[in-house]
Amino acid sequence: MSEIPAYKSAAAFLEAYLRELSALGNRSPYTIRNYRYDIGHFLTYCEEEGWAPLEVTRGRYRQYLGTLKDAGIAASSVARRTSTIHSFYRYLQREGAIDRDLLHGISLPKRGRRLPKVLEGTTISALLDGPDTSTPKGLRDRAMLELLYGGGLRISELTAIDTGDIDREYGTAVVHGKGSKERVVLFGEPAMLALEAYLAKGRREFVSSAEPALFLNRFGKRLTVRSVQSIIKEAALRAGITADVHPHLLRHSFATHLLDGGANLRTVQELLGHASAETTQIYTHVSQAKHAEASSAAWQALGEQVRARAARARKRQLAGSDG
Q: Could you tell me the pTM of the whole model?
């Protein structure tokens, strides 16, 4: 009988924990949503197994991790979940709900290195040309795509931009990244031209109030993250792109293309707003992998040419001996 109140108590602590994270202002709504899901999934598992979450043992927790592995969940996702659950138990200890961190000392699963996918330059060009710029919607969508790619923005940063955040003279914008960290991003000429066209001919068709948001929906309100995701997929479909195109793919492509063009790692780190150079380092591996792939393809093509020439020479030699 005591296990049911314990579960309810853990659930109540979860709500209080999420409220605290939201109040601190250094967690995005998407992070809060992930925390709720990850921790809630573990609490539900405890309930189904008849365990009291505030009295869970290390052995039982390892059993839970085993179910995640058996379900085929990626190592990176398991690592995220375990890190989130660990942080919740540290909160429980801090709040006095438990006298010690029950999960202390349990090592997190190692994250496998998975290189981010990127789009080739020709595919990026096709995507940017996808929106119909003869319409206000198309002007808006083109400007959004140009800013996402040209500034390496996160989708949450894009939707949060207000008109007052843009410096049209210098081609910069103030954005608020993870942890509410503010930074200035630079845009190239294509992005600025698209933005100018949208501000001159597109945005005024959406305005219905004093909404400060740069990008508006048909009701004159700030575009949501989900709406932008749908717009990107629509543009990819119009461009005939079969790959799964999402906002972060443009950010990955932006970083990789900069490194391919000779930008140094520190510059790319600052433009992306990464706190650590280690986070940015992954893009050097993507760039190197692309160069290695191109080099391998070139050598393979050269080898085929050499073999073809040798075959033709051999054929001529045989024809000459026959004569």
A: 0.54
